[in-house]
Amino acid sequence: MILRPLHDTDEDAAAVALVAAAAFGASRALRGGGPPEETPPERAALLRRRNRYLARTDPGGCWLAVDESSGMPLGVSMSTRREGTWGLSLFAVLPSVQRQGVGRELLAAALAYGRGCLRGIICSSADPRAAATYRRAGFALHPAMRLEGAVRKGDLPAPDGAVHEGSAKHRDLMDSVDRRTRGGAHGPDHDQLLAECPLLVVDDLAGSGYCYVGPDGHIRLLAATSRRLASRLLTAALLSLPEGTTARVPHLTAEQQWAVDVGLTAGLEPSTSGWVCLRGMRPPEPYIPSGFFL
């Protein structure tokens, strides 16, 4: 096996997608899930753009394991470093080479990139092997929930204040909220997120916050300076979805009861879903992390 930096190329982005699909598909099967659905072309293109983005912004944190003789990709780890906050965006190993040390080497390389960072965050799948790995690496495991379903807009009250469409001009505001909630600004991640989906912003005398709403109905990332503003943002985000869209609010820890309350009012169903793994920090609130941008 050779461990090398991930390159900003279509070939490496496709290799990452191949490994991730095989690894997560096998994990679902072990937990009794059905066969994986085919990834829609637009979703596949989005994932490739994300993979290339991190290869550019964090070359020291993104690694690909390949077979020495064939060059076949075996595993991948992708991590970020943002103002003293480290995050693991992706960690996957082909099922055929698991328990052979590939994952250990990949995770060690990603963790080394975060050396010196005071805080760390991982949004883990429900795979118990992943949770055990992250706990052994020194992360506290916080059980996570998700809310999912069709939004009953008639049951949602109107937001209790103004919510505006956001843009790149709100970068300083968002970085400031990031520092307050998670200890480090997302910085360039906001440029990538702005290219992917609409942004909602609140900014008034009570405080500030923001929310990215994916066109697929997923809440990609939300942060605010108070639970009241976070509830306002989530309410506005759910109301903004087209009729018939399935909303999904992931990675909620027990500290995010404000989000559970909004989701239940909107008719979404709660379920358990993986872990938010933290090191050197308490669960950030009011905050809904992105599984990729953290």
From TrEMBL:
List GO molecular-function terms, semicolon-separated: acyltransferase activity, transferring groups other than amino-acyl groups
Keywords of the record, alphabetical order, are: Transferase
Q: Which residues form the N-acetyltransferase domain?
A: 1-163
Q: Looking at the keywords, is Transferase present?
A: yes
Check the record and name the InterPro entries matching this protein: Acyl_CoA_acyltransferase (IPR016181), GNAT_dom (IPR000182)
Q: Gene3D superfamilies annotated for this entry?
A: 3.40.630.30
Superkingdom of source:
Bacteria
CDD domains per record: NAT_SF
Please give the name of this protein: Protein N-acetyltransferase, RimJ/RimL family
